[in-house]
Design brief:
heterodimer; A: alpha/beta; 5-stranded mixed sheet; B: alpha+beta; Alpha-Beta Plaits; two-stranded antiparallel ribbon; 3 helices; 17% helix; 11% strand
Amino acid sequence: MAPLVACAASDSEVPLRPPRLEQTFVTGSVAGPSGKIPQVLSVLKRLDHWGSIKARWGVGRMHYAVDPGLYALGSPQECSPVLVTANYKMSFDCLREALPGRDAWILVLETEGINVWCAAGKGTFGTEELIRRITASGLKDMVKHRDLILPQLGAPGVAAHLVRKQSGFKVHYGPILARDVAAYLDANLRATAEMRRKAFPLRERAVLIPIEIVATLKPAMIIIPILLLISGFGGEEGFLRNIAHDGIFSLLAFLCAILSGAVLTPLLLPYLPGRAFTSKGIAVGLPLAMVLLYAWGPDLRSWRNILFGGAWLLLIPALSAYLAMNFTGASTYTSLSGVKREMRWALPLEIGAGLSGFATLLASRFF
Amino acid sequence: MKDLIYLKDVVTLRVDTDKCTGCAMCLEVCPHGVLAIDEKRVRIGNRDACMECGACSRNCPVDAMSVEAGVGCAAAVINGMLNWQGTACCCSVDPNNPSAGKAAGTCCS
């Protein structure tokens, strides 16, 4: 199915189409002033779960979207709350799944299949788009009240005071997590301090790991054959026997570096020393490299082995540090100023260690 | 668990206490409890916890908060430097405006 590309955020001339009824998760419709409004349930289907799993692994993730516009969760009335979310399907599913047995309006903004927080940072989950969707959806005729509930993490993109001035709707920032929305509604739109804090618990770090691994696959497909090829040269044994020894070790070492930077560092994040992600990546990568080399137990009387081992002692921490540094983007608490500061010393260090490690690896093949 | 804190003394967050009316909207939208309020004036209580998401300044009706909002994502910064449209993380960034966009954010938990 071709992705439905709706009008660009800046293109306000194009009339906004209402969401289609023939989306897989739509179970029915309710009558609206200008046609049928798609109805959804809080229970997710197998297809919804499967879609989430695929998106976590990067399959179809960039087009995992629902049509923007107004939806009915259950059978909402004119006094039912209006919840605003992004058109990333995982965000939409998360919200409705968190509201079993409740009736509400869900106003989905066009964020090009990006989650609320990212889209708010970009401004697509923003004041303009919100006002445009309010008008286009005919929300004013569907509800008596003038209250909207937005996820708190939408706040970087939405100016609540401007929304009120321009649309008449008052923006209430709800809790950060969809799972707290029910409690927030029951407490007369009051969120506890805890609901307003973005933590980064183990579970949230863990679900991000697949996409970190997938990101390394493409470069790995190029790097692994090169490592195997390099390992074959030099020495007293033949090319293939070299690959069977040093080549397999190179492969293991490379995978270890990915494991270190893209899996272990995210998992152990709060317990690793240093504030910079690069430090954390080294703190995992260096000990791991030493353990791997110890297990390999090379004959250190040969220059070939010393250089080969030394190369990986540089390469594993360097790669781990680089991958860890890139995890700043997935983390929930790093500032741009901080990332730039870190990169100023970390990037030269990683590139320097990486290049000298690679040069040492090549040099080892001449012995 | 204690909140994770990134680097010290780097963020660009500023409060203009003369403009502040004490409406506390910024306190409500801040995801890291950076701000505090004393006698109807907002102050920065925990500067290093700020991630420069820009929620406070965007929602300040009197323009008292300022911050260079942006995405704390190394991949995006690198993509910006190389003029690439990155897809490594969700913060694929407009090379002309590398400060737009914020990464991460899982809504499920």
